[in-house]
Amino acid sequence: QVQLVESGGGLVQPGGSLRLSCAASGTIFSLHAMGWYRQGPGKQRELVATITNAGSTNYADSVKGRFNIAKGNTKNTVNLKMSNLKPEDTAVYYCNAHRITIAAGKRNDYDYWGQGTQVTVSS
What we know:
Layout: E1 2-8, E2 10-12, E3 18-26, E4 31-39, E5 46-52, E6 57-59, E7 67-71, E8 77-82, E9 91-103, E10 106-113, E11 117-121
Parallel strand pairs: 2-11
Antiparallel strand pairs: 1-3, 3-8, 4-5, 4-9, 5-6, 7-8, 9-10, 9-11
């Protein structure tokens, strides 16, 4: 099992910035990637940004150029710096950890989720 602890979030005015952090613990030896997803009011959960162990990043088109995901200074932590926030960024943000194992030649994928942190962009 992997446990994820999130921090950050809150209320910010349009154009402002926030930083989210997530720390993973537990069975983390086979973590492949970590990242952030969000779920806005009445919407489905969607990808925001991910980063692999190798440092490859992936962003949703809606946040490219405004958000930056990076590994934290502490092992198995990830930070999401959000800039130029817009009201449509309002959502509950969830940290995700993706784990891959190989057993008897079979690949197994596991996803773990944090409890979520609210980000509200409003004047």
